[in-house]
């Protein structure tokens, strides 16, 4: 039986895997490692504005799904 950490990691990576590779890497570099858009641009060979757009896209599409992992579900009102 997988541990809670294994289960969360699996779900986290499943969410990230839904993003295109260049979006995923820009998002992780910026959010996890606090890399600037200029640094990300140099690393992945895209303009800084494109890197910024990738991070914004990931925030819009991945963060809501990731937040579901950490926020308890609220019971529907009856």
TrEMBL record:
- What would be one Gene Ontology cellular-component term for the protein? DNA-directed RNA polymerase complex
Keyword vocabulary terms for this entry? DNA-directed RNA polymerase, Transcription
Q: What range(s) does the RNA polymerase sigma factor 70 region 4 type domain occupy? A: 13-61
Task: Tell me where on the tree of life, at the top rank, the source sits.
Answer: Bacteria
In terms of PANTHER family, this protein maps to:
ECF RNA POLYMERASE SIGMA FACTOR SIGI-RELATED, SIGMA 19 FACTOR
Query: What is the protein name for this chain?
Result: DNA-directed RNA polymerase specialized sigma24 family protein
Taxonomic source organism? Lysobacter niastensis
